[in-house]
Specification:
The protein is 35% helix and 20% strand. The chain is α+β, with helices and mostly antiparallel strands. The strands form 2 sheets. Strands 2, 5, 6, 7, 8, 9, 10, 11, 12, 13, 14 and 15 form a 12-stranded mixed β-sheet that branches.
């Protein structure tokens, strides 16, 4: 890991308070920023449930991350995970095409309505930003705690702020959600990006943070004054890296993947797997979607909490038991992948959490939770936990077993989540850049952040270069290339002496 530069000092900030007109959220729901042409209206809704699922998904593509799906976000909000009480107040921003209509009033086109029923949205939904008003910076995985401390010490209020992106999910993807095939997609994207700033101003928020954004959206945001922040994450790619006739082709099986490593590292990774299955006597299974029994989700919640308590005070519980219960009947369950380690016990014991077809009972003692999108070919690792200290179980359930499963399913990429850079790099995950974009209202703070990000980008670039140069999965190829170059040099020397 690279140690980034210290956060900007409060002494560098110009103490000039940002002043914005405060508007009640009821007004914001019907408010259209003055810079938006009459063709479009902007609506801020306090819950994903306020938008019909069909409308919500009309701006998504099959390749978009499942973390942006209506059923996932609704489950987080309705089970108390992403709510005002947890510091995540939904402020989803909708962009509607209302043609040449003014779009004022109640948005229904019916004039004044004395009823208490909510106004009927008017116009086709052509843009969406998944957004939350935040009272803290937890659960974002793009860390701005230093900015908040510097801001507050300079007398500038940093919270609340606007966070754009799905909660608790360091997964890259589109954030300015407009239908890519729309004839005015570029215009819609700019209009939606401008709306992020204008909604923040209307709600008197200090800043807007668009995290893990697609690189293709960065230019649009920068054009409106957002600052580009470069970060790193690690991912495994299903492609042979050793130079040769199969370079770039998908792996045929896990053994084929191990073939990209040098023999010493390959043997170590195999020993780690045997330590779990043979040494600890565990059965490892990878279950997907409807094949996951309810009891396995119960167990996964227990594993999740157990690991959080072990990591305290660094681990934080974002997901509640009710969320895991909701997954049992949610259509979103089809995207779940659990890698579970079972310890077999006698049938009928109270410790059993799963029974096989023969009625034998197993106890789940460790597991990981990932999310798959077969359309995009991406597997996203998210949570892990264990009830016992089992040597190498983390490596088996978070890396080896999911990668083996991804190869068998023909997936393209596995995203490894946050943290653990060294252990992931040792097992074939490589550093790739990630982007976020930040708009800061206060001019002094914005300038301090801009300078900070310049230095940070240099550090991130150096980190990626070092990780590329020391990648274990590419070591075999580097050694082979060096040996080939040395052999060619020796051959040239001999030829020169003969002459």
């Amino acid at each position: 890991m690279v140690a980034f530069a210290a956060p900007p000092s409060a002494a560098t900030l110009s103490i000039q308070r940002f002043v914005a007109v405060r508007r009640p959220i009821a007004q914001v729901r019907r408010w259209r920023p003055p810079s938006v042409v009459a063709r479009f209206s902007i609506e801020v809704v306090p819950s994903a449930r306020d938008v019909p699922a069909a409308d919500w998904h009309s701006v998504l593509t099959p390749a978009d991350s499942p973390f942006l799906y209506h059923d996932f976000l609704t489950a987080l909000e309705e089970t108390g995970c992403a709510t005002p009480d947890t510091g995540w107040t939904p402020r989803h921003i909708l962009l509607r095409d209302i043609g040449d209509d003014d779009g004022g009033g109640n948005g229904s086109g019916d004039g004044d309505d004395a009823s208490d029923s909510p106004p009927r949205p008017k116009g086709e939904l052509v843009g969406l930003a998944v957004a939350y008003q935040k009272a803290h910076s937890f659960g974002e995985f793009v860390f701005d705690g230093g900015w908040a401390e510097a801001s507050e010490s300079a007398g500038i209020q940093y919270y609340p702020k606007l966070q754009v992106g799905p909660p608790f999910s360091p997964v890259p993807g589109r954030r300015l959600l407009v239908p890519p095939s729309h004839p005015r997609a570029d215009e819609l994207r700019v209009t939606l990006a401008a709306a992020l700033i204008q909604v923040a101003q209307a709600l008197r928020l200090s800043s807007v943070h668009v995290t893990f954004v697609e690189p293709t959206e960065v230019a649009c945001l920068e054009g409106l004054g957002f600052l580009h922040r470069l970060g790193t994450r690690l991912e495994w790619t299903n492609a042979v890296v050793t130079p040769g006739p199969r370079a770039g082709l998908p792996y045929t099986n896990y053994g084929d993947f191990l073939g990209d490593f040098r023999s010493k590292k390959r043997s170590k990774m195999l020993r780690e797997r045997r330590a779990v299955t043979e040494g600890a006597g565990l059965d490892v299974q990878v279950l997907e979607g409807d094949a996951i029994p309810d009891a396995a989700l119960d167990a996964m919640y227990s594993l999740y909490r157990a690991t959080l308590f072990k990591k305290w005070p660094y681990g934080r519980q974002y997901l509640k038991r009710a969320f895991f219960d909701a997954l049992k009947t949610s259509p979103w369950k089809r995207h779940l992948v659990l890698a579970l380690a079972y310890r077999r016990v006698e049938a009928g014991t109270d410790a059993s959490v799963h029974r096989d077809a023969d009625g034998n009972a197993d106890t789940i003692v460790a597991g990981s939770l990932s999310v798959v999108n077969h359309e995009s070919g991406v597997l996203s690792g998210r949570y892990w936990g264990a009830l016992e200290d089992i040597p190498h179980a983390h490596f088996e359930l978070c890396y080896a077993a999911p990668v083996e499963w991804a190869i068998a399913r023909g997936l393209r990429v596995m995203e490894a989540g946050a943290g653990g850079e060294e252990s992931k790099s040792e097992r074939g995950f490589e550093a790739v850049s990630s982007s976020s974009a930040h708009w800061v209202a206060h001019r002094g703070l914005r300038e301090a952040v801009r300078v900070f990000l310049q230095d940070e980008r240099q550090a991130v670039g150096e980190m990626v270069a070092v990780m590329e140069a020391t990648s274990k999965v590419r070591e075999k190829g580097r050694v082979a290339a060096a040996e080939a170059a040395a052999a060619a040099a020796r051959k040239g020397d001999k030829a020169g002496r003969r002459e």
